[in-house]
Each structure stands twice: as structure tokens, then as C-alpha cells.
Specification:
The strands form four sheets. The chain has a five-stranded mixed sheet with strand order 4-3-5-15-6, with helices on one face. The protein has a five-stranded mixed sheet with strand order 11-8-12-7-13. The chain has a three-stranded antiparallel sheet with strand order 10-9-14, with no helix packed on it. The chain contains ten helices and 15 strands. The mean pLDDT is about 90. It is of the alpha/beta class. It has helices at about 5-15, 20-25, 30-45, 60-90, 105-115, 135, 165-170, 220-230, 240-250, 280-290, and strands spanning about 50, 55-60, 90-100, 120-125, 140-145, 150-160, 160-165, 185-190, 200-205, 210, 220, 235-240, 255, 260, 265-270. The protein has three domains: about 5-85, Orthogonal Bundle (Arc Repressor Mutant, subunit A), CATH 1.10.10; about 90-160 and about 265-299, Periplasmic binding protein-like II (D-Maltodextrin-Binding Protein, domain 2, 3-Layer(aba) Sandwich); about 160-260, D-Maltodextrin-Binding Protein, domain 2, CATH 3.40.190.
């Protein structure tokens, strides 16, 4: 028999003063109540109750066991209530990892989240390395590439690359019109680009093309590559979300109007879909809602 249930039944027998009254309170047969108590006594090898035709009384051992079992059941009930509160109310630490390019878009969102859920402590790590989120204890990873089949991905928004450069760069270099033109340009390279040194595109008909590129600068920092492109050092296959404002302001110019980079997405990655902690689930819901506004990055 279940030991905890037997403890609860034993406690009811003591409180009610008999097996029949305990059975009525617990909506259980009298014989089942007796079996639970007998199971405890058999396990312990000692009598817990002295039984008479009219009433039951605790033995000396039974009195000690009853007092201890009350504390155990009370502690268990408190643990259940605390776990339930964790499920219904987000609290504790929310550990997140993201890239330098995405981090600025998370700041206003995290501010909104912290105002709503003050019991949650957010720990945000920023970098470009490929982490093991399960091994390193992250609740959530927000990035543009998924390389771990153990993880669940929730798509936040699609995006594409643009071939960009500064207006000053075009004063001394012809604007690239098609992928093959990039062979004569200094291409600033992102070291974590999914296809390495082969830049991938699709034309207006949806036909995919790729070109091998070369350049004098390689970095794992998209922000650094963006700054170099603005300063006129070459062309950059830039994530649309990184240079969207620069294109609007004229600091950078988009080239190859009849081609576009292949589609990628920003994803929220987490290890398990079932029993997702409330703090994580609510943050993901806010991510989905706010990142929907960034569909403009596909334009």
C-alpha cells in the first residue's frame, strides 16, 4: 500500500477515535482503513493502536509515530502548496543566453517582463559561442541558429540577409548587381554564417544561387562588421534586423535588388515542451507577441 496514504489514514483514525468514523470521513471502507493501519504496523513490526470494541488508543510507540507523521504530512502539504504557487506565479531565476545582435531588442521586453513579474530574477548572458544550454543550466536561448536536436524551437520572426555597404564605398567601387559581382569586392565575413564563405541568395523567381567570397576581415561579431561596413571597408552580408535602421537613415545602402538572402529566423530555444516552468512560458509568450512587430525585417 502507498505509505503516505497509510500515514494519512492512521492520522484520521487517531483524530476520529475509531476505524468507522475515519472511514466515513475519508470515504473509504472500514476494512480498507484497517488494512492501511495494519500495513504500517507490519512494516514497523510494532503495534501502534490498542483496539477495543468501543475505541482505539495510541500505544507509546504509536504516540511518537503519530506526532512525527503529523509533521511529515504537514511538511508535504506545505511543499505541495509551494510547488503550486511556483506553477501559478512566476518566481525564481530565469537564465537566458542570446547573441550581441539580438540583445538590444530584448532590453525593452525584459523591462516589461520585470515590471509584471517582480519575483523573477533574470540572468542574461550575451555572446556568440555555441552553448550546451542543458549542461550550463539555461532556461532559454534566443538566437538565429539551431544546432541541437534535443531542443524545442519556437519561431519568433523570420529575417533575411542584405548585401550592404556605405555610400562612400560605392564612390570607389561599382555596386554589385548579382552574386557573381561579389568576387571583385572586399567581403566582410561573419565567422558563424551558416554556409561559411559561400554566400547564398535566391533571385526574384525563387531560384537559389551561391557565390564563394573573399575579404580581409573575419569576425564573430556582427556589430563589428556593421561598423566596418559603415566606415567603408567593404560589403557585408548583414542580418536585416541589425542594419534595418542604418538603411532607413542612409548610413548603409542595400545592393542587388533582384536578389535576396535565404530566409532565417530568430528562435526561442528550450529543452522541454511539457511542464514548462511558468516563468519561461510567460517570457516566451511575451517574446512571440513583441517580435511579431519585427516582421518588417523581411521587407
Amino acid at each position: 500500500m502507498d505509505r503516505l496514504t497509510s500515514l494519512a489514514v492512521f492520522g484520521q483514525v487517531v483524530e476520529c477515535g475509531g476505524f468507522s468514523a475515519a472511514a466515513r470521513r475519508m470515504n473509504m471502507s472500514t476494512s480498507m482503513v484497517a488494512n492501511h493501519v495494519q500495513s504500517l504496523e507490519d512494516r514497523l513490526g510494532v503495534r501502534l493502536l490498542n483496539r477495543t470494541t468501543r475505541r482505539v488508543n495510541l500505544t507509546e510507540t504509536g504516540k511518537f509515530y503519530y506526532d512525527r507523521s503529523l509533521q511529515i504530512l504537514a511538511d508535504l502539504d506545505e511543499a505541495d502548496q509551494f510547488a503550486g504557487a511556483l506553477v501559478s506565479t512566476p518566481r525564481g531565476k530565469l537564465k537566458i543566453y542570446t547573441s550581441t545582435a539580438i540583445a538590444p531588442f530584448l532590453v525593452p521586453l525584459m523591462s516589461e517582463y520585470m515590471q509584471q513579474y517582480s519575483s523573477v530574477v533574470i540572468e542574461l548572458d550575451i555572446g556568440e559561442r555555441m552553448i550546451d544550454m542543458i549542461e550550463e543550466g539555461y532556461d532559454l536561448v534566443i538566437r538565429t541558429t539551431l544546432r541541437d536536436s534535443r531542443l524545442i524551437a519556437r519561431k519568433l520572426t523570420p529575417w533575411r540577409h542584405f548585401v550592404v555597404c556605405s555610400p562612400d564605398y560605392l564612390k570607389s567601387h561599382p555596386a554589385p548587381e548579382q552574386p557573381s559581382d561579389l568576387a571583385s569586392h572586399n567581403c566582410l565575413q561573419y565567422s558563424h554564417y551558416a554556409y561559411g564563405t559561400s554566400w547564398h541568395f535566391e533571385n526574384s523567381a525563387g531560384v537559389k544561387e551561391e557565390v564563394k567570397i573573399e575579404g580581409n576581415f573575419v569576425s564573430n561579431s556582427p556589430q563589428t562588421l556593421r561598423e566596418l561596413a559603415i566606415d567603408g571597408h567593404g560589403v557585408f552580408l548583414a542580418p536585416s534586423f541589425l542594419v534595418f535602421d542604418d538603411l532607413k537613415a542612409g548610413r548603409l545602402i542595400s545592393n542587388m535588388p533582384n536578389y535576396r538572402g535565404v530566409e532565417f529566423s530568430i528562435d526561442a530555444l528550450f529543452p522541454e515542451r511539457r511542464q514548462l516552468p511558468t516563468k519561461v512560458r510567460l517570457f516566451i509568450e511575451l517574446l512571440v507577441e513583441r517580435f511579431f512587430e519585427h516582421r518588417k525585417w523581411m521587407a
